[in-house]
Amino acid sequence: MTDVSGMGSGPEDQREVLTNRQGHPVYDNQNQRTIGPRGPATLENYQFLEKISHFDRERIPERVVHARGTLSYGYFEAYGRLGDEPIDRYTRAKLFQQEGKRTEVAVRFSTVIGGRDSAETARDPRGFAIKFYTEDGNWDLVGNNLAVFFIRDAIKFPDVIHALKPDPVTFRQDPNRIFDFMSQTPESLHMLVNLFSPRGIPADYRHMQGFGVNTYKWVNKDGQSFLVKYHWMPKQGVRSMTEADAAAVQAHDLGHATKDLHDAIERGDYPEWELLVQLMSDDEHPELDFDPLDDTKVWPENDFPALPVGRLVLNRNVENQFAENEQSAFGTGVLVDGLDFSDDKMLVGRTFSYSDTQRYRVGPNYLQLPVNQTKAPCRTNQRDGQMTYFVDTAGESPHINYEPSVRDGLREAHYPHPDEVGPVVTGRLTRKRLPRTNDYVQAGQRYLLMEEWERDDLVHNLVTNLKQCDRVIQERMVWHFLLAEDDLGLRVGEGLGITPDDVAGLEPLRSQDLTDEDRGRLSKLG
Ligand code: HEM
């Protein structure tokens, strides 16, 4: 038998012995094997080469967005009802059905633009991604802390992210690039009014809201579908930071939000959020001045009340950040029976993008890693590929890794609900915007809903950033703000030395459809 007692430590040292990955004991971890004490080294030095070459491969590509983040575990507890009604009138998803039913979850919070070790005090949306390990397989709800997004069509995502990421030459996040893009993308106005307000720097992850942002569907026991939006409300309350607060925190800690969440869970102060949903019938809703599939819009709560359906509690930290956080993989395609996609053009693009990037970032077998694995029975005929960790058993016979077979192997499930009654869709192939873009009304309403100090902070932040932009970009942004809300446009303009007269002659952009109300505001300029 191999003696693994270790030569470097005394017989009194009871700790476990260091080995390499082959299980060989490491007798000397301080010196390479060399010919004589002064070298040279030799190539057959397996222990040294294995140690260094594994180290050389320690990093995987970081996420292209949301690289800085942290993961924790907990549970979701269902209320079993939607307001006064049984919830199965709206969704048959099992995790929502019985009051008190608990489903294990993993939640990853993140910032968007910075790299893996960047500051958590950045003005930036925060990611709020939940993986529900349900009995029907995994459900991922991949959201942000702000209720709307910059764009409404996935084809623009690489552009908006390139504009927000550092300049490829100077590697500085540059307001002149950001507002260059935004000034030509009026649908971003609603998001900008949120992002440059105090909500753009949440105090930490425990004190922020979460939103699914995109429109999904619920499907009930009769196969009838509804449009749905998801909202997470923190029981801890919502707290934000001004730029001055953020600068003070950042001076001594780049990872304050991860630390805050980790420490709260360690001391048993478990953070909690309530999940609320807004529902609409599954149609185009011509009575609204926006399209329900437009993720730059919120649904007015007076018409579509937000009703609670359950609560989320986080009560366990990861044991290893790399294995469980860095290699975790969330995506909008990961749904269970009773939940569905809508035709939201962002959601469709996202659903392709997540698993595509994860096959590249983590590898084709990323779903075999413990954090990503379903806890539901999982039997596939998928085989092989890099880093295959296990082979699903296929019935009694390992020979039958195909379907159909009269001999053995896996069979198809009996589809439980054959009578889907979703909308019938017909139309010409086209590349058109949604019909009701209405880019300004909700941005203006959001401004008016803010408290006085929030408006002051928003104007201050916009002016500070826009001062670093070319005049032509400043003017177009003031033009947009005037169309959203007079007071906002006048105040930002004043900070930049731009009057309504200065921008009165600007033509609408080719990329926008103005409403009659917008045209009315436009005609009053100057
Ligand atoms: C992460 C694409 C819009 C929330 C990511 C990643 C990609 C991506 C490629 C990295 C995933 C990984 O490496 O595992 C897209 C595309 C979008 C889009 C193409 C638009 C078409 C959005 C929107 C939201 C959002 C609107 C908010 C509702 C997130 C979150 C993560 C993420 C929270 C981090 C997930 C995690 O913690 O691992 N996105 N995204 N994304 N995205 Fe998006």
From TrEMBL:
Catalytic residue list: H66, N144
EC number, as in UniProt: 1.11.1.6
One cellular component term from this protein's GO annotations in UniProt: cytoplasm
Cell membrane is among the record's keywords: no
Keyword terms of this UniProt record: Heme, Hydrogen peroxide, Iron, Metal-binding, Oxidoreductase, Peroxidase
Alphabetized GO MF terms: catalase activity; heme binding; metal ion binding
Annotated GO biological process: hydrogen peroxide catabolic process; response to hydrogen peroxide
Highest taxon of the lineage: Bacteria
PROSITE patterns in the record: CATALASE_1, CATALASE_3
Cofactor(s) recorded in Swiss-Prot or TrEMBL: heme
Binding residues for heme: Y354
Domain (Catalase core): residue spans on this chain: 19-411
Protein family according to the UniProt entry: Belongs to the catalase family.
Role this protein plays: Decomposes hydrogen peroxide into water and oxygen; serves to protect cells from the toxic effects of hydrogen peroxide.
Protein name as it appears in the record: catalase
